[in-house]
Amino acid sequence: MAKTKPPKVAVIILNYNVWQEVLECVKSVQSSTYPNLDIIVIDNASPDVSAEQLGKRLPKDVHFIASNEN
Would you call 21 helix, strand, or coil by DSSP? Predict the structure, then answer.
């Protein structure tokens, strides 16, 4: 009997001026053993350098959205 693929799970992490903590959170989620996982980070128009830093530092397999409004 063939194994079925586990359901896709998306983890959405919101950011507002705490980009360092978001990077730590992403690392923690990536350490999960769940095999069918998407990570999405959304910056909610942080007025600091969060969007720039996350855009540069997030792993390429993490989906990043820089929103223009909170």
Answer: helix
